[in-house]
Amino acid sequence: MEGQYATLKDVAERAGTTAATVSYILNGSTKRYVSEDMRRRVEAAAKELNYVKSSAASSLKGKKRKIIAVLVPQFANQMFTELVLGVERVADRYGYILSICNTFDDPQRELEIIKRMQGQRVDGYIITPSKDGGKNTRQIRKIGVPMVVVDRLLNISEDYFLVSAQNYESTYMAAEYLLKRGHRHIAFIGWKADFGGLERREQAYRTILGEYGVTGEDQIVYNGEFTEESGEELTARALAEHPEITAVLYAYNIQARGGVDFLSRKGIRVGQDLSVLIIGAPDWVQTGNNHFTCVDLNGTGMGIMAAEMLFDIINNDQPIAPYQKVQEATLKEGDSVCQL
Amino acid sequence: MEGQYATLKDVAERAGTTAATVSYILNGSTKRYVSEDMRRRVEAAAKELNYVKSSAASSLKGKKRKIIAVLVPQFANQMFTELVLGVERVADRYGYILSICNTFDDPQRELEIIKRMQGQRVDGYIITPSKDGGKNTRQIRKIGVPMVVVDRLLNISEDYFLVSAQNYESTYMAAEYLLKRGHRHIAFIGWKADFGGLERREQAYRTILGEYGVTGEDQIVYNGEFTEESGEELTARALAEHPEITAVLYAYNIQARGGVDFLSRKGIRVGQDLSVLIIGAPDWVQTGNNHFTCVDLNGTGMGIMAAEMLFDIINNDQPIAPYQKVQEATLKEGDSVCQL
């Protein structure tokens, strides 16, 4: 037995024959002669024991499991549930199922999951890597298991398959939207993530503000943790330390949630007393009474792109040269930004 | 090779020896004599080929994979992402990882996933079943693989391990909240799901309204599909056909989202012109400008309960008799209900 699962040997024992004969019969082979009596005994034994062939069975060697491992860093972040739904849509067309795992952005956990998935012999990986993603994926890359990186960069020198979000353009677009409406004292609230391409969001903010003549200390940047509490705390500090602020640009949706809850509790009227723009578009941003202007990074689109890239690799007999794609972000207007 | 993965045989070939010897050496056995030279050749070959032991390897027979399969019906439904996070918290303590799969509430897909997970020899299942869940889980139940059902009932006669939400009490509590504030013309908007225990929500509405003398045609029930579009459509119809309505009770958060977006577009002021109460508590319900009174079914709590139940089964040498638990729902007041 393998836990509760019956093995080929268990079936053979019950039918009074060898594992080889059982395998032969259950695989429907007709090359050798097998008596009807033996055939019936083996089939009955398999049925009684509820035998299901292990996907690792030697008779299946070379056959794909048709399982893709998807590693996401934060399950509570709607962008990743959207990404997964996008991947699923494509995987479904090819008859593959997904095995979704949450790494919690923890390098050690990420490594453990990858090792476990290797043991399970999954056919491919779609991964949003932690800061040690390069190191953790070394073995699967060396082996050449199909892999596509999504949303964050991998800190390695070689080329690799990548689908990225528009980290730079999204924030540039958002800050520009505010600047065009007369805002000059704009707080940037973000995450201290100096890895994976995410630092491009702050860079875009600083660059375009500079283009509009807002430089030095007039660039108001607060970076913290990737939590709602941090978003609230940074918002409170920004407004207290810089009462001249007319707009807040939240670079991450998780922090934004804490921030807008704070504003609501303080009775600050968004779109009137203070303008708000959010990078990211989880449900709450534009539902019910919420009509926050936001930039949707299009997680579903990223997922679809990544899966199509992965199946391009999987279904190709020859190895293909790594290539990269970018999912375009979309600004979605709401009523949270006023003209100054 | 198994796809890209090197097998024991590949390593043996490269090292110029047998698979048995390779297995012996890599498992660190010291019972037989092996020359240092052979040991070095095998270790070098394994390293060159990036060999990772298949979790199905015979040397690991009897050992657990330490993987739990979690089957959810709708990834876009935040209650299930909460459930998964709850399960993870517990699984992590036991060193298990989760393999999360979305069944899309499709019986055929659900069956396919279960078969695939059986082939992968996962150690246990946590499943929110489709309407054919009883049939689809028959084989794993017969084998006795640890399994806990969550949120929906399984249509079978035998006992089974179950963690349910308070489908009845949640809706009773919600309707009572409205009735106590003077509302008598309350629309119930729900899903035509006549399976799995979900029909208890409408039953609770009808029961308590009856207790308050609201009977027959004064019980205003609209059932549709589990989509935002349906929520919007049913809301529009209810208000058009029953202008006497003073409150709407949304029994499902997905429909509620469509409904409140419709109300917002029509300029209907929730908490003033119309009261709203929602069963379910996804982020958008109480974030920013949204302060909808709701009943939280506590998906995280359900996940924690289900996982603890599963590990109770897994870690027990003896089979244990199935038992059931109920996760309490919590009413969370907002400002969407006015006193009549």
TrEMBL record, chains A, B:
InterPro entries: HTH_LacI, LacI/GalR-like_sensor, Lambda_DNA-bd_dom_sf, Peripla_BP_I. Keywords: DNA-binding, Transcription, Transcription regulation. The keyword Transcription applies. It comes from Enterocloster hominis. Pfam families: LacI, Peripla_BP_3. This is LacI family DNA-binding transcriptional regulator. Residues 6-62 form the HTH lacI-type domain. Coiled coil: none annotated. Transmembrane segments: none annotated.
